[in-house]
Sequence to fold (304 residues):
Amino acid sequence: MKSLIDIRDLTTGEIDELLTTALDIIAHPDRYARKCCGKKLATLFFEPSTRTRLSFEAAMYELGGSVLGFSEAQSSSAAKGESVADTVRVVSYFADIIAMRHPKEGAPLVASMRATVPVINAGDGGHNHPTQTLTDLLTIWREKGRFENLTIGLCGDLKFGRTVHSLIAAMSRYAGVKFVLISPDELRLPGYIQTDIMERNGIPYEETTDLAATMPALDVLYMTRVQRERFFNEADYVRLKDSYVLTPAKLETAREDLCIMHPLPRVNEISVAVDDDPRAAYFRQVLNGKYIRMALILKLLEVD
Ligand code: CP
Fold:
């Protein structure tokens, strides 16, 4: 039994295999419609979600399986003090696979040690979000046709933005990738990601506060929301929340084949006026999330 807690749990070959399956699902959805008949997915969400939870649920239904679970901690026995470890031991009796989101970093890892079925980390605090990264990889592949030789701008809250942390870990495997880290000083990428991932893998990167200056060099621009729920101080959030707002005017110097991504939800960091730009990939990105989660469920349930 294998769980997915960190994107680094997957080899590059396994990521390729998941992408290949997702592309085949897109091409031939009917072939997959009964693959998970009789199987159950539990979605245990101790923190709010729209895309991740509903795309997991849609993925399992489209595979012919069924879904149970809860969408907030208050409607589970966590509200009475039950531990994550006990919760997943219990849910393992009812479901074949678990997708869990939790505000505490490491909670899905603890869950994977106690569950008797595979556990998927659907986001843990400001730490990791590996299925968003698989979604992002499928999007980059479909939009750009390659992973190599890309200059990727990561913009916004790089400190608390867990999707950025996982995406760096994934893209650092590919040759010719360069990162431009665009954030206010207070929201810079954690040092351990720079040293343990980028520097260890010899990945070039630069840090800047200036999105406009870096725009012409980018192949991919990955915007992120300032993560209000991770701040201790509301005044700091208010001061930083609109550090970057992408508008059509700011895209005038961008490449014609720029791919604009965002894990969503968006608050104010991309103007709705950008949505009709053909380079805006963030809603196509959402749909990719369903396909890659279908591929992941098949893999972890060892369905042929
Ligand atoms: N991208 C993402 O994780 O969105 P949700 O919080 O809506 O699941």
Notes: The longest helix spans residues 282-300. The radius of gyration is 19 Å. The first strand starts at residue 40 and ends at 45. The pocket of phosphoric acid mono(formamide)ester is lined by residues 49-52, 123, 132, 263-265 (CB under 6 Å).
